[in-house]
Design goal:
By secondary structure, this protein is an alpha/beta fold. The chain has a single domain, classed as Rossmann fold. The chain has helices at 15-27, 47-57, 73-79, 92-108, 128-136, 147-157, and strands spanning 3-8, 30-36, 64-69, 84-89, 113-118. Strands 3-2-1-4-5 form a 5-stranded parallel β-sheet, with helices on both faces. Helix 1 links the parallel strand 1 (3-8) and strand 2. The longest helix is centred in the middle third of the chain and has 17 residues, at 92-108. The chain is globular, with a radius of gyration of 15 Å. Bound molecules: adenosine-5'-diphosphate (ADP). Residues 8-10, 14, 16-17, 20, 87-88, 90, 94, 119, 123, 126-128 line the site of adenosine-5'-diphosphate (ADP).
Length: 160
Amino acid sequence: MARALIPGSFDPVTNGHLDIIGRAAGIYDNLLVSVGRNRSKSPLFTLEERMEILRDSCAQWRNVQIGSFEGLLVQYAREQDVNVIVRGLRAVSDFEYEFQMAQLNRHLTREVETVFMMTGTEYAYLSSSIVKEIARLGGSVKGLVPEDVETRLRQKVQPD
Ligand code: ADP
């Protein structure tokens, strides 16, 4: 049975993430989507908020579970009995970093394979950072993120 992992910051989850998650959920028996606790990034949403949003937006896929991790990705993957790490590729600019990570993870363990999935072209320009930037500048993020995220973003950037 193939169990896959999609790791990420998901700060917040976008429709681009959900496209990859939905497609991976259709390929693998079991899919774990995990939020990384990265101390060098200062997220807009707390780890708990990011997990809650993911839980809501992934409820439609019965084989998807939400988790979180800290530290070495391959160690977490092994602890979770994961055979495959799935990462999305948007543009050539993603490639270099992803290639480096995949090679290093392969150096650390041969038990976990990294698989890349091409973005849906409609999401090629979409990232959590751009969504946060639009929200901060007062623009609409409709169609880029789930509705619940739209509301939460509005509350985050202009609390009243
Ligand atoms: P990280 O900080 O680990 O890059 P992200 O939350 O930005 O975390 O992304 C998690 C995964 O989702 C990565 O593999 C990333 O390439 C992928 N991803 C993000 N946005 C998109 C998108 N618009 N289309 C396809 N894949 C995406």
